[in-house]
Amino acid sequence: MKLEITKSAKEKLYEFPDGKFIQLSLDRGSCDIVNNLYEIKIVENREPDSTEKIIQSDDLYFIVDVDFEDTYGHELTIDYKNNFFVFKNKNQMFNNRIGLRYV
To answer: Which InterPro entries match (predicted)?
Structure first.
């Protein structure tokens, strides 16, 4: 997967404490196919379960659902604007109001 994290998003994501991972979980109950991720979770460092995997962008590691890449067409840019994360690629904006939550 081509995963790009903009400078502003990296600055925000680097604020989380050591020993934590970034989890991007799709909302399976959502009927909106592209806006089914509403928050980025900061979770304890752990091994992914059987329905998850780890992807990396630079020195950031993300726990994602196994079909995460398919959902975003194998290309995703994570940006940070107006106090929210923005998910987009060269063809469309998926969601521009993704929050951050510590679990």
So the answer is: ATAP_core_dom, HesB-like_dom_sf
Total-model pTM? 0.84
Determine the topology of domain 2-102 in CATH: Hypothetical Protein Aq_1857; Chain: A; (2.60.300)
Would you say the C-alpha torsion 27, 20, 72, 82 has a positive or negative sign? positive
What is the model's pLDDT at position 96?
Answer: 81
| pLDDT-derived band at 94, boundaries 50, 70, 90 | confident
DSSP state of 5: E
Mean pLDDT of the region 34-60:
85
Q: Do the beta carbons of residue 40 and residue 49 sit within 8 Å?
A: no
In sequence order, the 6+-apart residues with CB closer than 8 A to the CB of 20 are: 42, 43, 44, 45
* Triad 69, 73, 76: Cα angle to 5°: 75
Q: Which of 45, 41, 43 minimizes the C-alpha distance to 100?
A: 41
